[in-house]
Amino acid sequence: MGLAKRIIPCLDCDNGRVVKGVKFVDIRDAGDPVEIAKRYCDAGADEITFLDITASHEDRATTIHTVEAIAGQVFIPLTVGGGIRTLDDIRTMLNAGADKVAINTAAVQNPEFVRQAAERFGSQCIVVAVDTKQVSALDAAPRWEIFTHGGRKATGIDAIEWVKKMVAFGAGEILLTSMDRDGTKTGFDLALNKAVSSAVQVPIIASGGVGNLQHLVEGVLEGEVDAVLAASIFHFGEYSVQEAKEYMQARGIEVRL
Amino acid sequence: MSKIAVIDYGMGNLHSVAKAVEYVGRELGEVTEVMVTADAEKIAQADRVIFPGVGAIRDCMAEILRLNVDEIVADAMKSKPVLAICVGMQALMQRSEENHGVNCLGFLNGDVRFFGDKLKDAGGARLKVPHMGWNKVKQTQPHPLWRDVPDESRFYFVHSYYVHTQSSQMIAGVTNYGADIVAALADNNIFAVQFHPEKSQTAGLTLLRNFLQWDGAL
Known about the structure:
- The structure holds two protein chains of two kinds.
- Chain A has ten helices and twelve strands.
- By secondary structure, chain A is of the alpha/beta class.
- Chain A has an eight-stranded parallel barrel, surrounded by eight helices.
- In chain A, a hairpin with a 2-residue loop joins β1 and β2.
- In chain A, α1 runs parallel beside α2 and α2 crosses α3.
- Chain A starts with 5 loop residues before the first strand and ends in a 7-residue tail after the last helix.
- Chain B is α/β, with parallel strands linked by helices.
- Chain B has one domain: Rossmann fold (3-Layer(aba) Sandwich), CATH 3.40.50.880.
- Helices cover 28% and strands 31% of the residues of chain B.
- Chains A and B meet through α3 of A and α1, β8, β9, β11 and α6 of B.
């Protein structure tokens, strides 16, 4: 008995509304982020991740306001990502009530930013978000590369090497998204999760592909991750967080109930 | 009217703890003024003091000493209920292994140690560091701050270093991560926790509510 595996509902937000697309396009409206965050918290969510998916300059004030509103009512950890590019961006989000920030594109453009952020604010609040796609041929040993700008831009950087580097620079946690699986409901990329989780000592959050509760179980037992992130299975009422936890517990996974 | 001072020495996110205290104050139906400050005069006027902290101990201690927060905490400990959280608790100890060894305030007997990079559970499985997430806290002595908190409730932890003390009578709660480690210390009017009550939903808010009602006596 000990540390519980975490379930983290993810709110992808565009201009103050929760949305969810398939492979980052075809966006459906899922509602008000504050109401949704509170509902998930009451249902036993272990953390909330808020991703500002447009992160255009004009929407920044809306995002800050939403983070403040969530943090005033939801007393579990809150991670905010999307458009975090400077130490001032981090300070602003922490002041608004975020506990952690997720850094993605800016880390690739300037890896030193992650080191500076961890030194200034502590590794505990620096999550590096990694978007990956498998680039190896079907019959070759699996290899993944990282992508930026919401998955639109290839970098040629090997995902495992990148995660190791980010942890060495001070990342306290890795949010690992499979772009191949995102929105497909076919389950996590288990080989990817296992390879990354065994390569570093910090916790790994699996993301991308959850379509049912068995996928969450597989992520923990086969992907060997510390937390599972999901959006659409919770937003559209297919399953509650409570149901997900009961399902995982019945299969031998330690959860907070 | 109850005044709570959250000591601000520029490290980490104090807004979470301030917001959580304001929330439980409203639930209690009393006017609670929460001051996030390093001003010694304001802190002297507070009824209760919260000493938080996140980040690396070397930078925390440097700011604590630069802003004379050591004297402020020492004064508060003489006369008021004090709740120390996470690195705030670690700063009260004698010394930390973090950052190649840092002298801390030495107000409580004990030191702060690294989990190590080869941490294993009882079954030999590898454990991640930082210890991040919800773990069970076993209450090892009765205390006013545990009121209405069921034993073995889960609280949210995020830390790579933990407190070790020979003064076992101070230990108020333990959690298991590789071994039993200190989750809470109680020493007269001081209560110190390694976990984050402000992020621990119902159990954490109950503990904060108890703190707002605690007179510092056991």
